[in-house]
Amino acid sequence: MPPLRIYNTLTRTKETFAPLVPGKVGMYVCGPTVYDYFHVGNARTFTVFDMVVRWLRASGYAVTYVRNVTDVDDKIMDRARANGETIEALTARMIGALEEDCARLGLVKPDREPRATRNIDAMLDLIAMLEKKGLAYRASNGDVFYSVRDFPGYGKLSRRNLDELRAGERVAVDDAKRDPLDFALWKAAKPGEPAWPSAFGAGRPGWHIECSAMSCRELGVPFDIHGGGWDLQFPHHENEIAQSEGALDRPYVGCWMHSAFLNMAHEKMSKSLGNFHTTREVLDSLDGVQGGEQLRYFLLHGHYRSPLSYGRDSLDDAGNTLRGFYATLREVPPEAAALDWTQPHAARFRDAMDDDFDTPAAFAVMHELRGEVNRSRSGELSGVLRALGATIGLLQADPAAFMQGAVTLDVAALVEERIAARKAREFARADRIRRQLEAAGVALEDKPDGTTEWRRK
Ligand code: AMP
Ligand code: ZN
Question: What is the CATH number of domain 311-403?
Answer without folding.
Answer: 1.20.120.640
